[in-house]
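Example record used in the benchmark description.
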Amino acid sequence: MNRFLVSALSLVLMLSASIANSQVVSAPYSNVKLDSAKLLNDLAYISSPTLEGRLVGTEGNRKAREYIARRFEQLKLDSFGSGRFQSFPARNGATGVNVIGMIKGKLYPDQYYVITAHYDHLGKKGDKIYTGADDNASGTAALLAIAERFKKTTPSHSIIFVACDAEEGGLMGSRYFVEHPPVDISTIKFNLNMDMLSRSDKNEIYACGIYHYPFLSKYIKHVQEYVTGIHVIAGHDDPSKGASDDWTTQSDHYPFHQKKIPFLYFGVEDHPDYHQPTDSFEKVNKSFYYQVCNMIASLMMSIDAHAKID
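Model output (structure tokens):
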């Protein structure tokens, strides 16, 4: 065989692969527009006082869980053989319940990405209701909106959506999920976790996880290139800066990290209404929140466009 032709052919193939990869990285996902009305309606209901703060094991928590399950059914998300609900023992004799849905991937159906957000909160203390709009009705509503987006454009990889319970009691829902996954744990390649997305006076949203998984930085840089109106900042994941600054262990991504599953966690810094009855729907920065949710959906689509996460 002519070595010149072989070399030329090899060069063409290399360039084609490089171009294809660059097209994936720079794919125009900046035009993702989630349904803002549904997003805010979901947020308003999940954070409504009628759910009495969604404390694990309470009637309000049950109502939230059933609402999420109905939304999953409306979206026609698949369920596993064990069903839509995954029950587990929580603290003080309560039973926690994760709500699980799935969209099968069209190219890599046996590789799973898991998107998580906890729906429980602190309940009632006396006559005060801790409605938990930012923490974490905001993440739960985003979970529903992103699921709807992926139903419109089938993902390449299979995506599992988990509304976790009992996060406030020690990440109990996500811990149980990774110990009793509905698929082989080795096939779970990535976790995206959302916890507190809707409040920032500085219009800042943090992406935690790059310190542990540097190869994920390209996805953050990608969204930073086109996002306007909000600041996407990588950080709060360096253990050398102390526990108060390191969010690695602070939400439902941590059990995935313990299983060596790469993660990205999106959240805002604490605000005066954090874990207070005043964390209400009325105080949500709706414009900021909507932009954050669009950004996360765009990033997730970009990650899904790659054959592998690394």
